[in-house]
Amino acid sequence: MATIDLYNQQKQKVGELALDDTIFNAEVKEYLIHEAVKIFLANRRAGTVAVKTRAQVSGGGKKPYKQKGTGNARQGCIRAPHYPGGGVAHGPKAKEYNLAMNKKARKAAIRSALSLRFKDNQMTVLDSFNLADISTKGFVGVLTQFELGKSLVVIDGPNNNLELSARNVKDVKVTKVEAINIFDIMKYPNIIFTQDAVRKVEGALQS
Questions:
Q1: Does position 172 have pLDDT exceeding 90, yes or no?
Q2: Are the beta carbons of 125 and 194 closer than 8 angstroms?
Q3: Within the chain, how many helices (H) and strands (E) appear?
Q4: CATH number listed for the domain at residues 3-45+98-204
Q5: What's residue 26's pLDDT?
C-alpha cells in the first residue's frame, strides 16, 4: 500500500497516511485522461449562438406593394433577408456539443489523473487546512511554506475562511471533494488535499 507524508500548515511532518492503491497508485491511462478532458470541455460549450430566419422575424405578413405596375421588383414580404430588419439567410444555428462518458470510465479517468499527480510527487496532504479569519496573506503564506505555485486545494467540506481567503489568489482554486473533476486535476500541476478529503475521495471513487 502506498503512503504519503502528512504535514501540518507549517510544513512540519506529523506522520504518514496510507493511500488506497486503486485510487492514488493505479495504472495511469493517458488515453482515458485525454478522452475525459475532451468530453468535459465539449460539455462546457454553450452552443447558443443563433440568428433569426425570415420565419422568426416579427411583422411583414402583408405584401409590401402590388405585384405589378409600381416599377419595382416583385416582393412578397419585408421579412426577406435582403430587407433591413429581415431574417438572416444561412446564419448560425444553436447547436449542442454534449458528449457522453459512462460513469465507470469517468471514475477511472479521475483515478488515473490522481495517480499521475501522486507518482510525479505533485500531491501534498495536510492534516487540516484552517484559517482563523479571512486572510489572503495567511493563505498565501501556507502555499509559500510548501513552495507551491499553481495549485488545486481539495477540502472535505465547507470552509468559509479558506474559500474567501483564496478567491483572489491567482492560479489557485479551492474546491470540495464533491466538485472535483478531471479538468481541474490536469489544469493545476499541484494538488493539496486535507486528510479527510483524501478519505472522502477514496470512498467516492471506489469502482
A1: yes
A2: yes
A3: 7, 6
A4: 3.40.1370.10
A5: 92
Is 172:143 a contact under the CB 8 Å cutoff?
yes
First vs last C-alpha separation in the chain:
17
Spatial contact of 5 and 140, defined as CB atoms under 8 Å apart:
no
Q: Spell out the residues 6+ positions from residue 52 whose beta carbon is closer than 8 angstroms to its own.
A: 87, 88
Q: Are 126 and 139 in contact (CB under 8 A)?
A: no
Backbone dihedral region of 60: left (phi > 0), alpha (psi from -120 to 50 degrees) or beta?
Answer: left
At 15, list the grid cell.
Answer: 506522520
pLDDT band at 201 (very low <50, low <70, confident <90, very high): very high
Give the three cell numbers for residue 188.
493545476
> Which contiguous run of DSSP H or E holds residue 25?
none
> How many CB atoms are located within 10 Å of the residue 9 CB?
16
Give percent helix, percent strand, percent coil of the chain, each to the nearest 5: 35, 15, 50
